Amino acid sequence: MSAYLRNPHVWQESWDRQQEAFMPDREERFRAMLAAVAAVTEGEPPLLLDLAGGTGTITLRALARFPGARVTVLDQDPVLLAIAASSLRERATIVDADLGDPGWRAKLPEEGFDAVLTATALHWLPAERVATLYGEIREVLRPGGIFVNADHMPEESLPTLSERLRDHAREQREARYATGAATSWGDWWAAAAADEFLAPKAVERDRIYPATRHSQEWTPPALWHVDALRVAGFTEAGVLWRGGTDAAVIGLR
Ligand SMILES: C[S@@+](CC[C@H](N)C(=O)[O-])C[C@H]1O[C@@H](n2cnc3c(N)ncnc32)[C@H](O)[C@@H]1O
C-alpha cells in the first residue's frame, strides 16, 4: 500500500519541515499574516483565500486560530493539492487553478474575501503577471480587506549583506540535510514520485511545471511589491514583516 494512503498527514508534516529548512522563521511570517487578518475582522470568522496554498499550511493555521473561518485553497500542483485534500478534508474548499491565467477568479466559489494570503509562491510568476495579478486579487477582496504576500524580497540597499545572509542560510540548510535533520526539496519530490498513490500526480506535475519553467525565481525587493500594490489600486501598501532577505508586504483595499 502507498505510504501516502497509509498516513497522508505525514506528508503535510514533511512538507512543512522541508519548507522550514529554507525558512526557519516560516511560522513567524504566518503569525504576522494572521494577526493582520484578526485586525481587519475584529472577532468575526474571516473569509480567506490561501493563494498558491500548496498543501494548505496557511489554511490549517487559520482554521486553528479562527474557529468558523471559511477558507479556499487555490493551487495547481496535483501532488500538493492531494495532500491538502487529506489534511483539510471538508474543512476548506480546494480550487485547482493556474494563476498565470486571468480566468482563475471564475473558479472561486465566492468573492468578497476579508483576506487573500500567499507565501513563497509568486516568485514563480513573471514580473508583468505579478503586477496584473495584484489588480485581480484586489477585485476579489471586500472593501477594507487585505492582501498579504510573504516571499523572498531582499533589501535593494543591502546587496553584500543579502548575499552573505543567503550564503549563511544555505550552509545551515546543507548541514541539516547532511545530518538527516531535514529533507531537501529534491529528495522530498523524489519520495512523492516513488509513492504508489502520488506517482501519477507527480507525472502530471512535471507536465505543469517542466524543469525548464519550474521556477522563474524572480525576487524583486519589497518596495517593488509595495509600488505594484499601489499601482493596482490598494489604498494602503507597505511592509508588514521582515526576516533576513524575506518579507511580507500588505495591501489594504
Ligand atoms: C513553495 S510552494 C508554497 C506553498 C504554500 N504557500 C506554502 O507556503 O507551503 C509554491 C506554490 O505555488 C504554487 N504555484 C506556482 N505557480 C502557480 C500558478 N501559476 N498557479 C497556481 N499555483 C501556483 C505551486 O504549485 C506551489 O504550491
List the helices and strands and how they pair.
Layout: H1 3-6, H2 8-22, H3 26-41, E1 47-51, H4 57-65, E2 70-75, H5 78-88, E3 93-96, E4 113-119, H6 127-140, E5 141-152, H7 159-179, H8 185-194, H9 199-208, H10 222-231, E6 236-243, E7 246-252
Helix pairs in contact: 2-5, 6-10, 8-9
Taking the alpha carbons of the first and last residues, their distance comes to: 48 Å
Please identify which CATH superfamily we are dealing with: Vaccinia Virus protein VP39
- The share of residues in extended strands comes to 15-25%
CATH class: Alpha Beta
Q: What CATH architecture label applies?
A: 3-Layer(aba) Sandwich
Bound chemical compounds: S-adenosylmethionine
Whole-number mean pLDDT: 95
Structure notes:
There is one protein chain. The protein is α/β, with parallel strands linked by helices and 253 residues long. It has a single domain (3-252), classed as Vaccinia Virus protein VP39 (Rossmann fold). Helix content is 47%, strand content 19%. It has ten helices and seven strands. The chain has helices spanning 3-6, 8-22, 26-41, 57-65, 78-88, 127-140, 159-179, 185-194, 199-208, 222-231; strands at residues 47-51, 70-75, 93-96, 113-119, 141-152, 236-243, 246-252. Strands 3-2-1-4-5-7-6 form a seven-stranded mixed beta sheet, with helices on both faces. A hairpin with a 2-residue loop joins strand 6 (236-243) and strand 7 (246-252). Helix 2 (8-22) packs across helix 5, helix 6 crosses helix 10 (222-231) and helix 8 packs across helix 9 (199-208). It is globular, with a radius of gyration of 18 Å. The mean pLDDT is 95. S-adenosylmethionine is lined by residues 19, 52-54, 57, 75-77, 80, 98-100, 119-121, 124-125.
